[in-house]
Amino acid sequence: LQRDAKGQFLFDLLCHHLNLLEKDYFGIRFVDPDKQRHWLEFTKSVVKQMRAQPPFTMCFRVKFYPTDPAALKEEITRYLVFLQIKRDLYHGRLLCKTSDAALLAAYILQAEIGDYDPGKHPEGYSSKFQFFPKHSEKLERKIAEIHKSELSGQTPATSELNFLRKAQTLETYGVDPHPCKDVSGNAAFLAFTPFGFVVLQGNKRVHFIKWNEVTKMKFEGKTFYLYVSQKEEKKIVLTYFAPTPEACKHLWKCGIENQAFYKLEKSSQVRTVSSSNLFFKGSRFRYSGRVAKEVMESSAKIKREPPEIHRAGLVPSRSCPSITHGPRLSSVPRTRRRAVHISIMEGLESLRDSAHSTPVRSASHGDAFAAPGRSGRAESSERVAVIADENYSPADSVLPTPVAEHSLELMLLLRQANGAPCSIEEEKESEAGTPAAAEAEAALGELRALCPGAGGLGAAQAEQVNKFVLSVLRLLLVTVGLLFVLLLLLIVLTESDLDTAFFRDIRQTPEFEQFHYQYFCPLRRWFACKVRAVVNLLIDT
Predict the structure, then answer these.
(1) H/E segment holding residue 315
(2) Statement: residue 486 has pLDDT above 90
(3) Which of 31, 127, 189, 242 stands 20 to 30 A from 414 (CA)?
(4) pLDDT score, position 463
(5) What does the pLDDT look like over 65-76, one tens digit per residue?
(6) Does position 421 have pLDDT exceeding 60, yes or no?
(7) What is the rounded distance in angstroms from the CA atom of residue 213 to the CA atom of residue 229?
(8) Residue 124 backbone dihedrals phi, psi, to 5 degrees
(9) Tell me, what's the pLDDT at 468?
(10) Which domain holds residue 91?
(11) DSSP states of 472-503 as a string?
(12) Sheet order of strands, 187-193 included
């Protein structure tokens, strides 16, 4: 990537590679060195958003779940959404009853291995595949029974479509959980779905707020506020605490984007949102994409031959990486020279691999917010009523696809290709192999110290001082300019009769009213008194 390449360039390149037109539902996710998730912002430079060193590990994900996935225009889009929901099911994000879980798993089997064949599928064949965080023999028998008797003859596309229709009816469809705590200190997961804001505690949905009832979202530090206006002018403020300020800001940005995508009629209605009532305080963010209604209208105009889809077979559980094992090498990004030219079949294969790659667990999230019911996976599954842990705790999927263990191997390969040492030992040997150069450098340093004029040390120091002085002057000018602008704005707010929405919102805040009556008015009276005294003195003289 060029250093100034925007996120939109990378996303368009990826969608072109996948032959994907209905791309507004998808996004690119990455994890920073502090294990915090982020969505790649398309209006900003890719390199500047990354705090890690290349090569970068990013993940292609569904960012906005379709309100009706069965209504998607193209089969390639439905297939990619199918892969994402299958991954959600595998990581315990998609809660469902045992009967629904068996049907969903049977749809996956039918889509990826076809009709039941006694010659190919011996007794207990469904137990070789991992669909959920935990299984039971009873559930596996139910999956095989549905696959044998009810789904025979369905094509992969039909099975995927039926899978999407069933998944859409579940309460946790489209949930991307954010671990938080409520005001009582209880662990909770906040999520934004196509239909509204959701709070999950235990394995239950304790809050569901429609998008048209959400009036405002803001955050301060680790605290997230959701302002709700329900019927009969009833106003509620929900408060939750994120593990870190960065996690809280990510939660807030996800909420702003989801509300804009699902609630607004046109992208021209999108406004820049501030996390604070005062324009000079807090963060500002603006959703930059199209809204759901525009996406549906654009999809209806697609007229082309359906692209060919190379479906990959289901990955058996024996070969699925566990929490303690790293992801597959195929889920690691390929080198640059192959990135653009690999076939669509390989691209979908890599998506398939990532669909069953269990993410690396975050210490900050998993330790602090993992629910106490994780030992429930070892319980007898005859008592399982919900395909998830006793407490809803998708801690294994708090991160997206993993920061690969093989990234070190890739870095060594890239360094070798560039002529750099292949290992730390080789690098140390190469450094130790040049003592003469080190001695010469040391001698040169001593010579420069003894003879500053010869090395131009005085000129270098003067240049550094000049740069420091210029930077200080620049800082002072910017500070004076900001103070002048704030003074003008303060005069306009307090002395003018302008009644715009922006000024009205600021004037109605308690902080501004307190400042106006306790500080500004006494200061104005004192200043007016001094001006009158000076004027009277001039008149007398």
Answers:
(1) none
(2) no
(3) 31
(4) 67
(5) 999 998 999 999
(6) no
(7) 5
(8) 80, 20
(9) 83
(10) 7-168
(11) HHHHHHHHHHHHHHHHHHHHHHHH-----HHH
(12) 204-210, 196-201, 187-193, 178-181, 234-241, 223-230, 214-220
- The DSSP-derived string for 18-68 is HT-S--TTEEEEEE-TTS-EEEPPTTSBHHHH--SPSSPPEEEEESS--SS
Rounded mean pLDDT, 346-368? 35
* pLDDT 10s digits, 311-341: 875 544 333 332 222 333 333 333 333 333 3
* CATH number where 276 lies: 2.30.29.30
* Distance, CA of 332 to CA of 322 (rounded, Å): 17
Coil, helix or strand at residue 535: helix
Half-sphere exposure of 35 (CA within 13 A, CB side): 16
Q: How far is CA 232 from CA 210, 213, 215, 281, in A?
A: 16, 12, 15, 32
Give the domain-ending residue among 133, 168, 203. 168
The closest alpha carbon to 64, from 355, 262, 251, 349, belongs to: 262
Residue 138 lies in a domain: yes
Structure tokens at 1: 């990537």
Tell whether 27 and 151 lie within a shared domain: yes
Provide the domain count of the chain: 3
Per-residue pLDDT, 109: 93
CB 262 within 8 A of CB 290: no
| Token pair of 456 as six digits | 């131009």
CA distance 48 to 43: 11
Asked whether residue 14 falls in the same domain as residue 119, the answer is yes
* pLDDT at 450 (0 to 100): 41
DSSP letter, residue 118: T
SS3 for 220?
Answer: strand
Residue 433 lies in a domain: no
Per-residue pLDDT, 393:
59
Beta strands in 91-186 (DSSP E): 178-181
Task: State the pLDDT at residue 346.
Answer: 38
Coil/strand/helix, residue 188: strand
Boundary (domain end) residue, out of 301, 319, 334: 301
The mean pLDDT value of the chain amounts to: 76
For 269, half-sphere exposure in the C-beta direction (CA atoms, 13 angstrom radius) is 13
